[in-house]
Protein backbone atom coordinates (compact mmCIF):
# COMPACT_ATOMS: atom_id res chain seq x y z
CA UNK A 1 0.00 0.00 0.00
CA UNK A 2 1.34 3.39 -0.96
CA UNK A 3 -0.80 6.46 -1.41
CA UNK A 4 -0.36 9.35 -3.85
CA UNK A 5 2.20 12.02 -2.97
CA UNK A 6 1.24 15.29 -1.35
CA UNK A 7 3.67 18.20 -1.43
CA UNK A 8 4.79 20.86 0.98
CA UNK A 9 3.78 24.47 0.38
CA UNK A 10 5.29 27.91 0.70
CA UNK A 11 3.20 30.92 1.62
CA UNK A 12 5.14 33.52 -0.37
CA UNK A 13 3.09 36.41 0.99
CA UNK A 14 0.38 36.81 3.57
CA UNK A 15 1.68 35.30 6.82
CA UNK A 16 -0.29 36.90 9.70
CA UNK A 17 -1.89 39.34 7.23
CA UNK A 18 -4.39 36.78 5.96
CA UNK A 19 -5.78 36.51 9.49
CA UNK A 20 -6.77 40.15 8.98
CA UNK A 21 -7.86 39.88 5.34
CA UNK A 22 -4.70 40.82 3.51
CA UNK A 23 -3.98 39.18 0.19
CA UNK A 24 -1.85 36.05 0.18
CA UNK A 25 -0.11 33.82 -2.31
CA UNK A 26 0.70 30.20 -1.60
CA UNK A 27 2.60 27.87 -3.95
CA UNK A 28 3.26 24.11 -3.85
CA UNK A 29 6.90 23.22 -3.16
CA UNK A 30 7.67 19.81 -4.67
CA UNK A 31 11.04 19.37 -3.00
CA UNK A 32 9.36 17.91 0.10
CA UNK A 33 6.50 15.42 0.06
CA UNK A 34 4.59 12.79 2.01
CA UNK A 35 2.41 9.73 1.39
CA UNK A 36 0.37 7.25 3.44
CA UNK A 37 2.16 3.90 3.71
CA UNK A 38 2.29 0.53 5.42
CA UNK A 39 5.47 -1.45 6.05
CA UNK A 40 6.04 -5.00 7.23
CA UNK A 41 8.80 -3.80 9.59
CA UNK A 42 7.94 -0.26 10.64
CA UNK A 43 10.71 2.04 11.90
CA UNK A 44 10.49 3.93 15.18
CA UNK A 45 9.39 7.02 13.24
CA UNK A 46 6.66 5.06 11.43
CA UNK A 47 5.38 3.79 14.78
CA UNK A 48 5.25 7.33 16.18
CA UNK A 49 3.39 8.53 13.10
CA UNK A 50 0.96 5.62 13.44
CA UNK A 51 0.25 6.62 17.06
CA UNK A 52 -0.44 10.18 16.05
CA UNK A 53 -2.76 8.98 13.26
CA UNK A 54 -4.69 7.02 15.89
CA UNK A 55 -5.30 10.22 17.87
CA UNK A 56 -6.15 12.11 14.67
CA UNK A 57 -8.72 9.46 13.67
CA UNK A 58 -10.37 9.83 17.10
CA UNK A 59 -10.65 13.57 16.45
CA UNK A 60 -12.04 13.14 12.91
CA UNK A 61 -14.77 10.86 14.23
CA UNK A 62 -16.29 13.80 16.09
CA UNK A 63 -16.26 16.34 13.29
CA UNK A 64 -19.57 17.72 12.10
CA UNK A 65 -20.96 15.08 9.70
CA UNK A 66 -22.79 17.81 7.78
CA UNK A 67 -19.40 19.27 6.88
CA UNK A 68 -17.44 16.10 6.16
CA UNK A 69 -17.67 12.41 6.96
CA UNK A 70 -15.04 9.73 6.57
CA UNK A 71 -14.99 6.01 5.98
CA UNK A 72 -13.93 5.52 9.60
CA UNK A 73 -14.00 1.74 9.35
CA UNK A 74 -11.42 1.71 6.56
CA UNK A 75 -9.31 4.40 8.25
CA UNK A 76 -9.25 2.67 11.64
CA UNK A 77 -8.57 -0.67 10.01
CA UNK A 78 -5.59 0.73 8.07
CA UNK A 79 -4.24 2.39 11.22
CA UNK A 80 -4.64 -0.89 13.14
CA UNK A 81 -2.52 -2.51 10.41
CA UNK A 82 0.26 0.00 10.96
CA UNK A 83 -0.47 2.75 8.42
CA UNK A 84 1.69 5.85 8.88
CA UNK A 85 2.51 9.07 7.01
CA UNK A 86 5.90 8.78 5.36
CA UNK A 87 7.05 12.36 4.91
CA UNK A 88 10.22 14.27 4.08
CA UNK A 89 8.53 17.56 5.05
CA UNK A 90 10.30 18.94 8.14
CA UNK A 91 7.89 19.67 11.00
CA UNK A 92 7.75 23.15 12.53
CA UNK A 93 9.37 24.70 9.46
CA UNK A 94 6.41 26.66 8.11
CA UNK A 95 6.05 24.64 4.92
CA UNK A 96 2.96 22.62 5.70
CA UNK A 97 3.86 19.21 7.14
CA UNK A 98 0.43 18.75 8.77
CA UNK A 99 -1.22 20.19 5.63
CA UNK A 100 0.12 17.38 3.46
CA UNK A 101 -1.09 14.77 5.96
CA UNK A 102 -4.58 16.30 6.13
CA UNK A 103 -4.76 16.34 2.31
CA UNK A 104 -3.70 12.67 2.13
CA UNK A 105 -6.31 11.54 4.70
CA UNK A 106 -9.10 13.54 3.01
CA UNK A 107 -8.11 12.22 -0.40
CA UNK A 108 -8.28 8.59 0.70
CA UNK A 109 -11.05 8.44 3.31
CA UNK A 110 -13.51 11.33 2.81
CA UNK A 111 -16.97 10.35 1.60
CA UNK A 112 -18.46 12.49 -1.21
CA UNK A 113 -15.16 14.25 -1.57
CA UNK A 114 -14.59 17.24 -3.81
CA UNK A 115 -12.00 16.06 -6.33
CA UNK A 116 -9.24 17.97 -8.08
CA UNK A 117 -10.71 17.00 -11.45
CA UNK A 118 -13.98 18.84 -10.88
CA UNK A 119 -14.74 22.31 -12.04
CA UNK A 120 -13.44 24.00 -8.91
CA UNK A 121 -15.82 26.89 -8.36
CA UNK A 122 -15.10 29.45 -5.66
CA UNK A 123 -17.78 27.80 -3.50
CA UNK A 124 -16.08 24.41 -3.76
CA UNK A 125 -12.69 25.91 -2.92
CA UNK A 126 -14.16 27.62 0.13
CA UNK A 127 -15.89 24.42 1.18
CA UNK A 128 -12.60 22.51 0.90
CA UNK A 129 -10.77 25.23 2.83
CA UNK A 130 -13.40 25.04 5.58
CA UNK A 131 -13.16 21.23 5.80
CA UNK A 132 -9.36 21.34 5.85
CA UNK A 133 -9.38 24.11 8.45
CA UNK A 134 -11.46 21.96 10.80
CA UNK A 135 -9.30 18.88 10.14
CA UNK A 136 -5.98 20.70 10.62
CA UNK A 137 -7.13 22.41 13.81
CA UNK A 138 -6.24 19.11 15.49
CA UNK A 139 -2.57 20.02 14.98
CA UNK A 140 -2.55 23.80 15.39
CA UNK A 141 -5.43 24.84 17.61
CA UNK A 142 -6.82 26.99 14.78
CA UNK A 143 -6.12 26.58 11.10
CA UNK A 144 -7.12 28.53 8.00
CA UNK A 145 -7.11 25.29 5.97
CA UNK A 146 -4.89 26.85 3.32
CA UNK A 147 -1.89 24.52 3.68
CA UNK A 148 -3.89 21.33 3.08
CA UNK A 149 -5.77 23.05 0.25
CA UNK A 150 -2.51 23.89 -1.46
CA UNK A 151 -1.19 20.40 -0.93
CA UNK A 152 -4.42 18.76 -2.11
CA UNK A 153 -4.74 20.79 -5.30
CA UNK A 154 -1.01 21.16 -6.01
CA UNK A 155 -1.78 24.56 -7.53
CA UNK A 156 -0.79 28.11 -6.56
CA UNK A 157 -3.59 29.72 -4.56
CA UNK A 158 -4.38 33.42 -4.50
CA UNK A 159 -6.07 34.60 -1.32
CA UNK A 160 -8.00 37.81 -1.97
CA UNK A 161 -9.63 37.78 1.47
CA UNK A 162 -10.79 35.14 3.93
CA UNK A 163 -13.83 34.19 1.91
CA UNK A 164 -12.46 34.89 -1.54
CA UNK A 165 -9.82 32.47 -2.80
CA UNK A 166 -8.98 31.15 -6.25
CA UNK A 167 -6.43 28.93 -7.90
CA UNK A 168 -4.09 31.01 -9.98
CA UNK A 169 -1.06 30.75 -12.23
CA UNK A 170 2.24 32.42 -11.48
CA UNK A 171 4.66 33.81 -14.09
CA UNK A 172 6.81 30.99 -15.42
CA UNK A 173 10.29 30.90 -13.99
CA UNK A 174 13.22 32.43 -15.81
CA UNK A 175 15.77 29.65 -15.26
CA UNK A 176 18.58 31.88 -16.54
CA UNK A 177 17.52 34.83 -14.37
CA UNK A 178 19.83 36.23 -11.69
CA UNK A 179 17.00 36.83 -9.23
CA UNK A 180 15.55 34.19 -6.92
CA UNK A 181 13.26 33.34 -4.05
CA UNK A 182 15.09 31.09 -1.59
CA UNK A 183 14.70 29.33 1.75
CA UNK A 184 17.15 29.86 4.58
CA UNK A 185 17.27 27.18 7.27
CA UNK A 186 17.21 28.68 10.76
CA UNK A 187 18.30 25.33 12.19
CA UNK A 188 15.51 25.34 14.77
CA UNK A 189 11.83 24.44 14.69
CA UNK A 190 9.11 27.00 15.29
CA UNK A 191 5.73 26.41 16.89
CA UNK A 192 2.74 28.00 15.21
CA UNK A 193 0.36 28.37 18.17
CA UNK A 194 2.61 30.50 20.49
CA UNK A 195 3.57 32.82 17.61
CA UNK A 196 -0.05 33.39 16.60
CA UNK A 197 -0.81 34.01 20.29
CA UNK A 198 1.83 36.80 20.39
CA UNK A 199 0.32 38.33 17.26
CA UNK A 200 -3.21 38.22 18.68
CA UNK A 201 -2.03 39.86 21.93
CA UNK A 202 -0.32 42.64 19.97
CA UNK A 203 -3.47 43.16 17.90
CA UNK A 204 -5.15 44.42 21.09
CA UNK A 205 -3.00 47.58 20.84
CA UNK A 206 -4.41 50.26 18.58
CA UNK A 207 -0.96 51.33 17.33
CA UNK A 208 -0.11 47.80 16.25
CA UNK A 209 -3.51 47.37 14.57
CA UNK A 210 -2.98 50.55 12.56
CA UNK A 211 0.50 49.45 11.54
CA UNK A 212 -0.85 46.08 10.35
CA UNK A 213 -3.55 47.78 8.29
CA UNK A 214 -1.62 50.76 6.91
CA UNK A 215 1.83 49.25 6.42
CA UNK A 216 2.00 45.47 6.71
CA UNK A 217 -1.14 44.66 4.71
CA UNK A 218 -0.50 47.48 2.23
CA UNK A 219 2.97 46.15 1.32
CA UNK A 220 1.85 42.51 1.40
CA UNK A 221 -0.98 43.23 -1.07
CA UNK A 222 1.39 45.18 -3.32
CA UNK A 223 3.92 42.30 -3.29
CA UNK A 224 1.23 39.79 -4.32
CA UNK A 225 0.11 42.04 -7.22
CA UNK A 226 3.69 42.67 -8.35
CA UNK A 227 4.65 39.00 -8.19
CA UNK A 228 1.61 37.82 -10.15
CA UNK A 229 2.06 40.53 -12.78
CA UNK A 230 5.81 39.97 -13.10
CA UNK A 231 6.68 43.54 -12.03
CA UNK A 232 10.05 42.59 -10.58
CA UNK A 233 11.35 46.13 -10.04
CA UNK A 234 8.27 47.25 -8.13
CA UNK A 235 8.20 43.91 -6.26
CA UNK A 236 11.65 44.46 -4.78
CA UNK A 237 10.73 48.00 -3.71
CA UNK A 238 7.73 46.65 -1.84
CA UNK A 239 9.70 43.69 -0.46
CA UNK A 240 12.22 46.04 1.09
CA UNK A 241 9.40 47.94 2.83
CA UNK A 242 7.77 44.68 3.96
CA UNK A 243 11.05 43.29 5.31
CA UNK A 244 11.52 46.56 7.23
CA UNK A 245 8.02 46.50 8.74
CA UNK A 246 8.46 42.88 9.86
CA UNK A 247 11.87 43.67 11.36
CA UNK A 248 10.48 46.66 13.29
CA UNK A 249 7.21 45.13 14.49
CA UNK A 250 7.49 41.31 14.41
CA UNK A 251 10.82 40.87 16.23
CA UNK A 252 9.61 38.01 18.50
CA UNK A 253 8.87 35.94 15.37
CA UNK A 254 12.42 36.35 14.02
CA UNK A 255 14.99 34.02 15.63
CA UNK A 256 17.48 36.27 17.48
CA UNK A 257 20.52 35.05 15.57
CA UNK A 258 18.95 36.35 12.34
CA UNK A 259 18.29 39.90 13.50
CA UNK A 260 21.61 41.16 12.17
CA UNK A 261 21.35 39.27 8.85
CA UNK A 262 17.84 40.65 8.41
CA UNK A 263 19.02 44.23 8.91
CA UNK A 264 22.09 43.68 6.73
CA UNK A 265 19.85 42.66 3.82
CA UNK A 266 17.78 45.84 4.11
CA UNK A 267 20.92 48.02 4.34
CA UNK A 268 22.90 46.43 1.48
CA UNK A 269 19.94 45.52 -0.79
CA UNK A 270 21.74 42.21 -1.53
CA UNK A 271 18.63 40.30 -0.37
CA UNK A 272 15.47 40.84 1.70
CA UNK A 273 14.22 38.39 4.30
CA UNK A 274 10.66 37.72 5.41
CA UNK A 275 8.84 35.20 7.58
CA UNK A 276 7.93 31.84 6.09
CA UNK A 277 4.81 30.77 7.96
CA UNK A 278 4.47 31.95 11.54
CA UNK A 279 8.21 32.29 12.23
CA UNK A 280 9.94 31.55 15.51
CA UNK A 281 12.20 29.11 13.68
CA UNK A 282 11.93 26.83 10.68
CA UNK A 283 12.63 28.41 7.33
CA UNK A 284 13.07 32.08 6.59
CA UNK A 285 12.11 33.24 3.11
CA UNK A 286 14.58 35.32 1.10
CA UNK A 287 14.27 37.32 -2.10
CA UNK A 288 17.21 38.60 -4.14
CA UNK A 289 17.76 40.27 -7.49
CA UNK A 290 21.24 38.74 -7.62
CA UNK A 291 21.55 35.22 -6.26
CA UNK A 292 25.37 35.19 -6.39
CA UNK A 293 25.52 38.34 -4.26
CA UNK A 294 23.05 36.86 -1.77
CA UNK A 295 25.02 33.61 -1.59
CA UNK A 296 28.22 35.55 -0.79
CA UNK A 297 26.49 37.62 1.88
CA UNK A 298 24.92 34.50 3.42
CA UNK A 299 27.88 32.18 2.85
CA UNK A 300 27.47 30.46 6.23
CA UNK A 301 24.02 29.24 5.26
CA UNK A 302 22.53 26.79 2.81
CA UNK A 303 20.20 28.55 0.40
CA UNK A 304 17.52 26.42 -1.23
CA UNK A 305 16.22 28.12 -4.36
CA UNK A 306 12.46 27.94 -4.75
CA UNK A 307 11.85 30.16 -7.77
CA UNK A 308 13.99 32.04 -10.31
CA UNK A 309 13.27 35.50 -11.72
Tell me what portion of residues adopts beta-strand conformation. Answer: 15-25%
State mean pLDDT (0 to 100 scale): 93
CA radius of gyration is 20 Å
**Segments where pLDDT lies below 50 for 5+ residues?**
none
**Total count of strands:** 9
C-alpha geometry: globular
Q: List the secondary-structure elements in sequence, H or E.
A: EEHHEHHHEEEHHHHEEHE
Helix content: 40-55%
How many angstroms separate the termini? Answer: 40 Å
Number of helices: 10
Structural class: alpha+beta
- Report the biggest beta sheet as strand number plus sense, adding barrel if it closes: 5 strands, antiparallel
Describe this structure in words.
The chain is α+β, with helices and mostly antiparallel strands. 44% of the residues lie in helices and 18% in strands. Strands 1, 2, 3, 4 and 5 form a five-stranded antiparallel beta sheet that branches. It has a four-stranded antiparallel beta sheet with strand order 7-8-6-9. The N and C termini lie far apart (40 Å). The mean pLDDT is 93.
